[in-house]
Design brief:
homodimer, mainly alpha, DNA-binding
DNA sequence: AAATAACACCACAAAATTTGTAGACTAATA
DNA sequence: TATTAGTCTACAAATTTTGTGGTGTTATTT
């Protein structure tokens, strides 16, 4: 299961994706719209900024905004920033590899399956972007009916 | 990431799978071979027994053993017993569904991707069984060279 | 029947992680 | 220079994970 932190991050980003190119958005507004504790959200957005997903502007008229177009940031990237490894076992992670503590087998009989799971998961999460989880925009709705 | 508990469970089961039909195996022996804290392992094995994956025998000559052939227990089943949900979001879980707390969108823009991830993961974990992660058996090795 | 072996069960404790908060600081703008 | 809004550090509360202790129960052996 994804942590709340990651879920908050995805929600905030789906909101910011819908506002891409419309100027900075206040943390306060995101927190309110998405019902995320504001100080917690602060930390998350800052982390995403330090990882070059977001950018920000201080002072009046400031706020957060996507650094690049929504389709330029994969969900895998976001998840690695806020959640950490995507793989289910440390010994099978591409970016957070760790030798399994106390693995007693010379040839691990377990990790093969989890390499498959990892690859199947990554195939999706590397190809999907913020554009794919972008919140529905009001102006995109068709009111002509 | 899978919890240590789940990793321990998988290791213990890979060991028991290799010993299928060879009588009960002592908790003590599994703990030693697989370097798992014995009291922690007790809890795990009991849970797997209560879920009908394992069976046990008390007293002298007792121990734990697989209730059915290794290929009869899927990894998905094991993981649901010891780890809980396989899906990455509560609102997308088949066996542990929960409405997303504070989901503010009428139509969630996020869950579609995670349904895909869930399905890709389950396709593997439902089809792979304990037979697939079974520890190499010594008698299966070819010493003729 | 007594002794012993081994699982069953309950309750708790330590450790780690996650989630959330407080408050001072810095930068930008009007 | 006052105000606005992000930055940063540190901490605290809550929850989950990991691990332990002790007693009970059942089966086997002698």
């Amino acid at each position: 299961m994804l942590s709340k932190k990651t879920q908050y991050a995805l929600r905030a980003l789906s909101f910011l994706a819908a506002r891409f190119d419309q100027g900075p958005v206040l943390i306060h507004e995101i927190a309110e719209q998405k019902k995320i504790p504001i100080k917690f959200l602060e930390n998350i957005l800052l982390e995403l900024k330090n990882a070059d997903v977001l950018d920000s502007k201080k002072g009046r008229g400031g706020g957060y905004f996507l650094k690049t177009a929504p389709n330029q940031t994969s969900l895998a990237k976001v998840m690695r920033i806020v959640e950490g490894p995507i793989a289910l076992l440390p010994c099978v992670s591409l970016y957070f590899y760790q030798k399994c503590a106390d693995c007693t087998e010379e040839v691990c009989s377990i990790n093969g399956v989890f390499i498959q799971v990892r690859d199947a998961t990554l195939k999706i999460l590397e190809s999907k972007t913020l554009e794919d989880i972008q919140e529905m925009r009001l102006e995109a709705l068709d009111f002509s009916i």
